[in-house]
Amino acid sequence: MCPSALGLAPPRVQLLQRQDPLLLPPPGAGGRSLPQRPVPEPGRPEVAPRARMPVQSIHCLMPAALRLPPGVPEPLSCQRRHTLPASEFRCLTPQDAVSVFEIEREAFISVSGDCPLRLHEIQHFLTLCPELSLGWFQEGRLVAFIIGSLWDEERLTQESLTLHRPGGHTAHLHVLAVHRTFRQQGKGSILLWRYLCHLGGLPAVRRAVLMCEDPLVPFYERFGFRPVGPCAVTVGLLTFTELECSLQGQAASRRNSC
């Protein structure tokens, strides 16, 4: 049965009748007349009534976080660029020994023909006293390091090169080295200052000592070290000057400046 037989106009006609009153039949032409829109006053523009959107539909238009289907990798531009800290200072572990030895070997073999510490000695100190070491890492890569141990005598001896005395109050700095691609950038100075700050926070450590060749004495004097005389330790034909730095009076000032 067609809709007109039931007195129902097709849906399109109804839509046109709602939109344009000019298409409506005149009153009395049969059927009921629909209410017409009021004629606007002369000189006053017609203003359409404000449409109200249901609150529920507003919430539906809020942007939602898009998620990729499972198994589809994110584009590189959306992935996290750095998963490791850009710059980090931390104590070394035995797992860092190989990286330490590679930097040390390159730094010292070409100059003196020998390394202050062998690989097994590095592993030894990083196992017994890792808190007396400090490494500088950039995006997970070791760029500079210091290794130390405790000593319990007033002056350094040949034994101090390989021994760690847990009851001692003197931190013996065995080696400071910087990776070749990061030299001449002040990283050795920054690392040494950080290391002295670190030692100042260890209650058992009262002073730091080291031995170096004469040309390096002014460098260490800038950080509070003072020469105490020729060192009893010799390596082949090389001789050294022994220096010490008190950590008790300067510990607080160093911690505040680090």
From TrEMBL:
It is found in: Cytoplasm. GO terms for cellular component: cytoplasm. One of its GO terms (biological process) is circadian rhythm. Keywords: Acyltransferase, Biological rhythms, Cytoplasm, Melatonin biosynthesis, Phosphoprotein, Transferase. It catalyses: a 2-arylethylamine + acetyl-CoA = an N-acetyl-2-arylethylamine + CoA + H(+). Residues 87-248 form the N-acetyltransferase domain. One of its GO terms (molecular function) is aralkylamine N-acetyltransferase activity. Residues 21-47 are annotated as: Disordered. SUPFAM superfamilies: Acyl-CoA N-acyltransferases (Nat). Pathway: Aromatic compound metabolism; melatonin biosynthesis; melatonin from serotonin: step 1/2. Its EC number is 2.3.1.87. It comes from the Eukaryota. The keyword Acyltransferase applies. Controls the night/day rhythm of melatonin production in the pineal gland. Catalyzes the N-acetylation of serotonin into N-acetylserotonin, the penultimate step in the synthesis of melatonin. Belongs to the acetyltransferase family. AANAT subfamily. This is Serotonin N-acetyltransferase. It comes from Phyllostomus discolor.
